[in-house]
Amino acid sequence: MKLIVLSDTHLKTGVIPSQLQTLLEECDLIVHAGDFNTLKAYRVFNASGKLKAVFGNDDASELKRLLPERLKFEVEGVKIGVVHEGGLSVNDITAQGYLAKEMEVDVLIFGHLHRPLIEKNDVMLICPGSPTKPRMSNPSAVELIIEKGSINGRIIDLEGDTCQYIKFQESLESTRRKTV
After folding, report:
1. Which residues contact 17 (CB under 8 A, 6 or more apart)?
2. How far is CA 51 from CA 5, 54, 57, 67, in A?
3. How do residues 41-99 score in pLDDT, each as one tens digit?
4. In degrees, to the nearest 5, what angle opens at C-alpha 107 toward C-alphas 100 and 52?
5. What sign has the CA pseudo-torsion 61, 68, 92, 134?
6. 51 φ/ψ angles, rounded to the nearest 5 degrees
7. What would the pLDDT profile of 92-150 be if each residue is shown by its tens digit?
8. CATH for the stretch 2-179
């Protein structure tokens, strides 16, 4: 089974970027860890009938009433948990590891950080980053393949702009090289 894992799409409209749309059409299940932004954006993702999702901190109030804060489901014997904010640090994912154990899952998918991460120790921790508003990374999603209880994941770099901070840093470095 192929899952496409997303978070932090922050779409004000119902338009999914074409490269992302292609990925969604080719998967068996879409898992979204919150921050659709609007009910309209949620409905576009949900129209496929393949969506499992939680709400994020930046979602409209209608979505916070419609979607759970935490979600747990199983795919081919693998227990998967989904939350938006698993922890607040981009460098230390200890909180997410504890949350995975608390939820009794094999895989914890979380968002909010806007930077992709896949880490496997006792449990697999996955942050898909953001396909539209990344932070210090490229736009991204995660592909998970689950077969007979085995899990393989990879970060998919998508086309689009990196965050402004990276562009600003590159501009500063370029300016420094010219003035030295």
Report:
1. 131, 132, 158, 159, 160
2. 10, 10, 19, 11
3. 999 999 999 999 999 999 999 999 999 999 999 999 999 999 999 876 767 888 999 99
4. 105
5. negative
6. -90, 135
7. 888 999 999 999 999 999 999 999 999 998 899 999 999 988 887 889 999 999 999 89
8. 3.60.21.10
